[in-house]
Amino acid sequence: MPNSNRLPLDGERLLIIEDEVLIALDMEATLLDAGAENVELLTTRREAMANLDGQGYTAAVLDIRVGNGTTYEIALRLNDDNIPFIFCSGQDLSADMRAKLPDAILLRKPVMPSDLIQGILQAIKQRA
Amino acid sequence: MEDIVDPPIVGIGASAGGVKALQAFFEHLPTETGAAYVVILHLDPEHRSELAAILGNRTDMPVTQVEETTKLLPDRVYVIPPNRRLSIADHSISALPFDEPRGHRAPIDSFFRDLAEQQIDSFAIVLTGAGADGSVGVKAIKEAGGIILVQDPTEAEYASMPRNAIATETADFILPISEMGQRLIDLLHSRDQIKPAEVREAEDESIRRILSHVRVRTGHDFSQYKRATVLRRIARRAQIAQKESLADYYNYLRENVEEAVALFGDFLISVTTFFRDPKSFNALAQQVMPRLFEGKSASDTIRVWVPGCATGEEAYTIGILLLEEASRRDLRPEILVFGTDLDAGALASAREGRFPATIEADLSDERLRRFFLREGDHYRVRRELRDIVLFASHSVLRDPPFSRLDLISCRNLLIYLDRDLQQQVCNIFHYALLPSGFLFLGTSENADYPNGSFRPVDRDFRIYQPVGNSRDRRYFLPIIMNAGRTADHGDVQPRRVRTTDNISDAALHRQMLERIAPPSMLVEDTHRAIHLSDSAGRYLQPSGGPISIDASELVRPELRFDLRSALHRAFERGEPTLTLPIPVQFDTSLNRVYLHVKPVPQEEGPATHALVLFIEGGPVESIGDVPELNDRSPGLEQLQQLQEELQLAQSQLRVMREDSEAATEELRAANEELQSINEEYRSTSEELETSKEELQSMNEELQTVNSELKLKLESVSRAHSDLQNLMAATDVGTLFLDPSLRIKRFTPRMTEIFNITSNDEGRPITDFTHRLDYDSLADHAREVLRDLTPIEHEVKSRNDGWYLVRMRPYRTMDDKIDGVVATFVDITRRLRAEQALRHSEERLRQEARIVNLSRSPIFVWNFDDGIIQWNRGSEELYGYTREEAIGQRKEVMLQTVVPGSSFNAVKEALLKNGNWSGELQHRTKDGRILTVESRIEMVTIGDCKLVLENTFDITDRKCWEQRQQLLMHELSHRVKNTLSVVQAMARQTMRTSESGQDFLKRFDGRLMALNQAHTLLMNSYWEGAELGAMARAQLKAYLVDPNRLSIQGEKVILPSELATPFGLIFHELATNAAKYGAFSNQKGHVDLKWHVDKQSEQQHLSVTWEEHDGPIVVPAAKEGFGTSLITKALPGANVNIDYRPQGVVYEIELKLPESGPNSAEFQPLAPGR
């Protein structure tokens, strides 16, 4: 839903990895409202790993625990590919991951829509 | 007999062992003896004396301790108080403090000396004692006429005091105590018989006889000794001999040879001490001694004579003063002190120079040190002093005196002599002294008799110097020599010089003859004048020069020539001569004198004496009448006379020469004799030297033996004291019995068992009662003696104690059996302890059983080694049986792990604190790792460290804790997630709601759907939900009418991540149907079907929602939230919507997860499963 006004996430291509559908749908709506050009919703890790390369994501929102596992492997891939991302979860990063990704931004659920947008923008800024 | 009031006094001295001796003495003494007894004992000055009380038990006489001056009464006993000496004066006795320090005191001597000064009847008794106290005192008493009794030293407990008293040679009786009383009574009785004061003139004859008897026996004449002294001494001897009269005694004296010697000894008794009368000696030292040394060179000699020196004290005293004076001067002339006495015994002891220790009282410490050498109870004069004093047997009256003396000290002789003899002796002293010499007399004497021959230097202290020149002195010598000669020849004619009142007829005749006859002179053959008649002095005129007693030198010069020739003729030829008249110039007139010399006829041989008669004729009328002496022209007669005289002189000369030759010959012989004697002396001296060396070597040997003995004695006494201490210290009752079971010795503990005291040693043990139930004690002791094997018994005592009695034979050092040693060890406590031990062992066993059966794992291991106890609880927990566990190292068998520490740290903590508690991990026999709470305690028993460990399995509790923590995390996560979901749901519902009412209705519906799904999941503990149940729960409202909704499908369990979306999807489908589809009219119905395709490994689920007979389907212009939820809610699902006109059909296909519904996501919940 293009908007003539300049929106915060104008033109961004975003990836959401969240196994809770209701939350994922809400985030998608929020991000699209904030001007994102495209939002991809993925609910399983397997999907995510298969759909990372060549999609042109400009940023990602990751739940930590997805299905039976975690999104740490994905986060490390994103980090290697220099794609900005934030964590959005009810739990903490493991100590191991905190050490590997000292600058990673973590938003605690439940998240206010404005916080989510700000978090993404900050992550993009870090990588700029 | 007049003073019955004053009793005789018996002084009794005793020391060590004296109390017993005194008791025995008084027991043997009757009560009424008439004497007063004074007892002097050496008492401890610090303690009260019980002596009076003790002696009071043995005699009926009153016994008093002298406290103040008391008059002495007969038949009483007076006892010395402690720390006092007794003094007696005027029949009163008093106790005075000592002048000397302790250790130098001699109370017995002191009292005896006092007693002697009283000049009353006294007896001295010396009993047992150590030391020499009393020995000086008995001499004093004896001198004063007292009688000395001494206890027989062989009987005395301590023989030293009696021995020393006997050594003074004054003891009259040496008796055992039992005989002493009777002897004393006899003596007291006989004392009444002869009293010196009562000797009548009539008895003079007896005394004279006695004295002449003594003179015959001993060669010493005491007739001129003081009568009182002589009488006292004779009376004393008579008393001792128990003779009742002097006549009886005289007979006794004649019959007993020894008695004369004893009486002689008594006559000579004299008492001297060192520095007797110290003030006098002080005066002597200050006034005389320095002057003796004046003008003397080293080669000169100071000569001193001490006549009547007795045992030498006076001579040594003078010697000490001289040596002290000499040491003050640089020059030391030779010093010679002659001590002379008649008494050979006294001289012998003087020569020995050994004096009793009691002389300490008379000599200063300094003098004692310098001049004496301590030898046990005695002092010996040092060599320095001994060498200058010479002792010789010599009679002042009989023997020629010493001459050229510087000092004569005669303090103890003159008082015994009568006045005439005193005068003679003074003359002798006058002769013997140098003009510069001194005479030192006793305090009661003086030298005033020969008037003017001595002048006092110090009258108070009786120091005199001779006056007159040597010629005057020589004048007296012939007389003395004469007197001496008389005695020498044993001439019976006595007392020539003495004038006596009893003139016999013969003497009267002689006097008359002398008075009538012409003056005469008796001359002996050596021409010496021996005797002069009363009137002969007229014809004498001694010539100048040295005094001579040659008759021809003595007469007037005119008579000399004629007398010489006449005497010559008389002795050479035995012819009498009557000279021509010789004119002699007397004071006023010139008279003629005829000399008639007549030899006294002898029965044979030449005459030894001649009488010279001086016959005086008339005066010479004219010079011509008689030849003038100074006539220058001698007449013929005179010439003839001269020739005769010459011849006479020549013949005289010849005789003289012959005499001289003979004398030379004699001298030569004497010289030879002397030489031979000298040789003898030398050889004797060598022999003496040899025997001295022998003595020395023997002495050394003795010393060696002595020191060995001393060492041995020391070790014996040390062993003895060890034994004493052991006996006193030991806690074990020990009893030594001899072979007849008499008590030899026992330790103090024995008195607790037997009723014995230390006085019971020597009594049979069977006489005593004891507190043991042990009647066979004596039998057992005998058994031990018989079999020589030790016996041991535990014996009960009557006060509930127990004793271990051991008896073994007593073996002497040389392995003889000499009795039995019994020891009594109190084992009451040991037995009680044993009992208590048994009790506690029993209890311990009980407790051990309880521990063993306990379900709680308890085991014991040795700190340095393996397990030693392993109870049932341990077997159950760890799976190892007791047999397997014991001996194994606990940490190896159980593979102990201490979380956060190490097993070694635990062990260190045990060593430090003795206990430890905490968590451990142990491994069971089947390999399980258990976490246990362990409580460990270490007990050290001896050198074995036992560790008790009690473990408590907490593995399950640990699991639960972990699981709970996980759950908490999960819950938190889910709540947050759920809230996010609700948030998202609210926001999405909001987006598509037309109004608040609409939102509320939709939101409620969705929330309820979510809740339904959760409820189902909750029922399965979030493990999954059954698809049919889920559908029925969501579509409950439409199931009321089976025509509207049919549900068909097998049982499919959905995992939780699928269950919730399905719930929501069913809700949205029903909502959509109710709004637009089959449920919105009255006739429409829905078919819900599913099935699972199990072709491959993957389970494939197909769900179909098919609506029928609803309103005509119009596809929605815009996809609402509900629809996008349906299509997107299931990840990986394929959702197909077919809008058929008769009704919408939803087809959902998806793969069920491989692990199936049971592979839940909560893996940690069941670890190890």
Supply database-style keywords.
heterodimer; A: 128 residues; alpha/beta; Rossmann fold; two-stranded antiparallel sheet; 5 helices; 7 strands; B: 1169 residues; alpha+beta; 7-stranded parallel sheet; 7-stranded mixed sheet; 33 helices
Can you give a write-up of this model?
The complex is a heterodimer of chains A (about 130) and B (about 1150). With about 130 residues, chain A is an alpha/beta fold. Chain A contains five helices and seven strands, in the order E-H-E-H-E-E-E-H-E-H-E-H. In chain A, strands 2-1-3-6-7 form a five-stranded parallel β-sheet, sandwiched between helices. A two-stranded antiparallel sheet of chain A has the order 4-5. In chain A, strand 1, helix 1 (about 20-35) and strand 2 form a beta-alpha-beta unit. Chain A starts with 12 loop residues before the first strand and ends with a helix. The mean pLDDT of chain A is about 85. With about 1150 residues, chain B is an alpha+beta fold. Chain B is rod-shaped. Residues about 470-500, about 625-630 and about 1155-1169 of chain B have low confidence and may be disordered.
Major β-sheet strand ordering of chain A: 2-1-3-6-7
The 3D shape of chain A can be described as globular
The proportion of residues forming helix of chain A, as a percent range, comes to 25-40%
Shape, principal axes of CA atoms of chain B: rod-shaped
**SS content category of chain B:** alpha+beta
How many helical elements of chain A? 5
Question: How many DSSP helices of chain B?
Answer: 33
Give the termini separation of chain B. 149 Å
CATH class of chain A: Alpha Beta
What summary fits the major beta sheet of chain A? Answer: 5 strands, parallel
Q: Which CATH architecture of chain A?
A: 3-Layer(aba) Sandwich
| Arithmetic mean of pLDDT of chain B | 81
Cα end-to-end separation of chain A: 26 Å
Low-confidence sequence ranges of chain B? 470-502, 625-632, 1156-1169
Strand content of chain A: 15-25%
Q: Tell me the number of structural domains of chain A.
A: 1
How many beta-strand elements of chain A? 7
